[in-house]
Amino acid sequence: MPFSPPLGDSRQNSNARPRNSIDSFEIQFDDSFDQALDNIEIETPHHKSGNSNNLNRQQQSDPQREEFEMRTLNSADPEFVDPNKKSIDTDRRPLIDDHSLGSNGGSPYKYRNVSEVALNPSSSNIWDRTISNIKMAGSRNWKKFRSIGSGIELTDQHMEREIHPDTTPIYDRNRYPSNEISNAKYNAITFVPTILYEQFKFFFNLYFLIVALSQAVPALRIGYLSSYVVPLAFVLTVNMMKEAMDDIQRRRRDKESNNELYEALSQPKLVASKDLKVGDLIKIHKGSRVPADLVLLQSSEPSGESFIKTDQLDGETDWKLRIACPLTQNIPESDLVNKITVTASAPLKNIHEFLGRITYKGSTSHALSVDNTLWANTVLASSGFCIACVIFTGRDTRQSLNTTKPKVKTGLLELEINNISKILCACVFALSIILVVLAGFHNSDWYVDIMRYLILFSTIIPVSLRVNLDLAKSVYAHQIQNDDTIPETIVRTSTIPEDLGRIEYLLSDKTGTLTQNDMELKKIHLGTVSYTSETLDIVSDYVHSLVDTNKDDSKRTASGMLSTSRKDISSRVCDMILTLAICHNVTPTFDDDELTYQAASPDEIAIVKFTESVGLSLFKRDRHSITLLHGQSGTTLNYDILQVFPFNSDSKRMGVIVHDNQKDEYWFMQKGADTVMTKIVENNDWLEEETGNMAREGLRTLVIGRKKLSKNAYEQFKKEYDDASLSMVNRDIQMNQVISKYLEYDLELLGLTGVEDKLQKDVKSSIELLRNAGIKIWMLTGDKVETARCVSISAKLISRGQYVHIITKLSKPEGALNQLEYLKINRNACLLIDGESLGTFLKYYRREFFDVVLLLPTVVACRCTPQQKADIALIIREFTGKRVCCIGDGGNDVSMIQSADVGVGIVGKEGKQASLAADFSITQFCHLTELLLWHGRNSYKRSAKLAQFVMHRGLIIAICQAVYSICSKFEPIALYQGWLMVGYATCYTMAPVFSLTLDHDIDESLTKIYPELYKELTEGKSLSYKTFFVWVALSFFQGSIIQGCSQGFTSLLTDDFSKMVAISFTALILNELIMVALEIYTWNKIMVLTEIITLLVYVVSVPFLGEYFDLESMLALKFYGELLFIVLISVFPVWAAKAIHRKLHPPSYAKVQEFSNV
């Protein structure tokens, strides 16, 4: 591992010195890390006095210089290293080599803090060396190095690793992380403590626990112990069972992955995935999952090519080409095990970056890049098999580094109820203290009275609230999963259905979520004429004459092709189709006698399928040649591929140089984005206009051009290009300069293609509905900027005429804020930003960036890493406090989904990983509107009403208790005891109250006709401090009326106590049944039955309540007259007030419902 020299002249001199190593392999650190390492001095041990004296003289002449000595393992004399001997193997070994340690586990180097030495020159003594040795002791492989002053720790995760397949899996088997996958949230030890913490962190449950525990004290016991303990125990048991079942399912899925068997070259039997170690060489067959991060060594294809599916890593379903290292492609398997060394960079999150080196027999080396890697959880797609070396396992893999651990999610409604419960608790304490104060402190046990009052009034915070809310969530989950309009929807997290009605930000993936990832070429334009899918027969007729036209060379001038203006239309079409059929990176394969195409871009597959449909098929392709089949004549056209210039986000174009074997001609063909191709092709007056027209149609455009090269021109280009490719300084720049010099100017403009990425069903209407509902939509994709823009336009994410502000390639903080100035003025614009620029803003100007973009209606982020997606979701939640929903379908979306308040996964072509990690699983994007606008609305409004009604039910009985206690000279005596308290919260009121979970205020169709109604939900008006205090006032009024009138019709005498309880409790039950009826918007059979059955249950149970009621008084007609009077006085004013308020200030949903019924 190379260490940077100190800043200043010495660093410059060091950089100026030529490298002796053939292969240079360095890991770059950030500035802060370099500064920390600048404080470190490394000294080589002085085995020989002569060497020591020379070294001392060197240090005196250049005190800032750090000396590094690379020691070869194969040296015959370990005590002596010839400084003049330059070993190739030595140059390739990392600076800190684990095997270079002595047999006693000591280090050949001594580390001292330079700042300490400078402050205390006399510290270089035996004591200092002893302390240094103690610090390094116990670290067998020197895994950690700590700079005392900076506190920075270096581990294997920060250092390059050197892997020897014959020894590393054995001797370093415990050095690197295990490859066992574990997505479980709990284990046998943490399960109960974690669940209890998650439950009792809510004030509700903690309060109930304290009340239940208080019943263990005889002086505080009131009523049955079970009435306090059973409901709480029920809630805890249900939650534990649900969490346990979910975790068991996760463990089963993990077990399946961990026990997958693989063939290891050094093992006599198959090895389970969880037992693979760094350095193992494994053989992977078609369709197998890659179990760890690997370096591809050999492929069964002679060319060394293999294709992989990366949909679970980067979200793209296109197959990616991977190439085996040419150094190892054809060597025997025994040499793979014993004679190669792989050097890999430290584990990184970036899935598009890798630096490595492979060495064969200690002398020959070859560089490794991301094209030689197979990342974990990708799938081998090509036929045959491949052999690869494990370089990263477990938490070091790219997949693991880009995945965040799931957290227990809590709904916003629960947090709001938790805050309200604190107010109720404060009221209980205040009321208890006030009553004791009013009674006076004559009683020496006044503190016991306070505790008894607290227990008496504990119904203000009803323990049944948690039971009702948890059961209600289960009802909502059942309704969602059985909704025929959104089939196959699965609720995986049943604790947050109410949050579906509170979403304000929607973060969506693109590929497979908004689009089907199914490309189709819709149009080609040749300047004067265009062809669409309806006119393909004309193009086919022209292509039929392609072979004859190629044979007729008499029409060709000495310089090559005729100019575009002089060609007939047939030749122009043939040239266009021929170029499209050659200029790509598509490889045809036969899978079960069926021709399929493999490519890194679906656009290219769409173009190749188009040329096939018009009569020119891709028949064969490898890295050096391409063969086309002319369908009409059956003739094959053979071309040698001399050079390929792949597409990347910087160049925005792809080119190829081919040699036409039929005519011995050299051609440079190129296609790319109009923004760059406009400057490369010959002058024209139509390209800009037509690209704009196609973009407005939502088509992805590519400009097609070509140039004929002479043999001498090609050879001259090749010579200079090869020389530039060997440069170690500014290699890419020099290569591009050669391309520009010889190739990229005055290309013959052949035409323009328009490719459509088919959208998911009803995506346009769904996005329009969600935007009208007040939801801000962000699209986060790993795809290219041009692609994302086209899809955004076609999906109506960017509306017609909306300005798109583009920020790309912003790598430095200087001037970054200036890029946001326009967005501060135009708040209706759309921001299109790439991952590099986004990373810059997140690092330097996080607050300033989000203060601006959070107000925009649409943001499109391209080239995002999985972790960036998750970071955006977390930052929006942190800065706004609003509910964020994330939706995706690939493994690269898992972190984003788990970071959101509500995660939605789509089951599609990219597998089920996102679906399994999500809170809700759907099959199409359009189902999201039903999930949010209908089920989200119902879940939130029902739970809000249910929670407030349960509170009202507890408040009203507490008010009755308070009125009685006040009138009975402040005696802490229970008004309703024993079964009355248990029955009131269960069989006498629970069913009608719980039937509110079946209510809805408007019809389902109206939620989509008037999506604006959703905005009211996000404001949280259904459950707020205002509505809460309205219910408190209502409870105070009704409780005072019921208990006051009951005492008025009877008396407070002991003989009349049972009469008073009978009329009071009966009025209380009837009042609650009527109040439920008043709160229902839409009646159904279940609601009617619960009302009738509950009333009958109470009537039937009355004869068995002689312990609490005066049954004789209940047989008198006077009893029913008094009961009717109390109920009317209690209910009628409430009904009248609600009716008048609804008439004068009708809510929006009432207006809509009334309008729809007209």
Distance between the termini: 79 Å
Q: Tell me about the biggest sheet?
A: 9 strands, mixed
CA-based gyration radius = 38 Å
The tally of beta strands, per DSSP, is 37
Overall CATH class of the domain at 437-480 and 934-1157: Mainly Alpha
Biased composition (Polar residues): 10-23, 50-62
Family: Belongs to the cation transport ATPase (P-type) (TC 3.A.3) family. Type IV subfamily.
Domain P-type ATPase N-terminal: 173-221
Binding site for Mg(2+): 509, 511, 889, 893
Protein described:
This protein is α+β, with helices and mostly antiparallel strands and 1158 residues long. Helix content is 43%, strand content 17%. The chain is built from 43 helices and 37 strands. Strand 35, helix 31 (894-899) and strand 36 form a beta-alpha-beta unit. Mean pLDDT is 80; it is low at 1-153 and 553-566. Its cofactor is Mg(2+).
Summarize this structure briefly:
With 1158 residues, the protein is α+β, with helices and mostly antiparallel strands. The chain contains 43 helices and 37 strands. Among the domains are: 127 residues, Distorted Sandwich (Calcium-transporting ATPase, cytoplasmic transduction domain A), CATH 2.70.150.10; 268 residues, Calcium-transporting ATPase, transmembrane domain, CATH 1.20.1110; 190 residues, Rossmann fold (3-Layer(aba) Sandwich); 186 residues, Calcium-transporting ATPase, cytoplasmic domain N (3-Layer(aba) Sandwich).
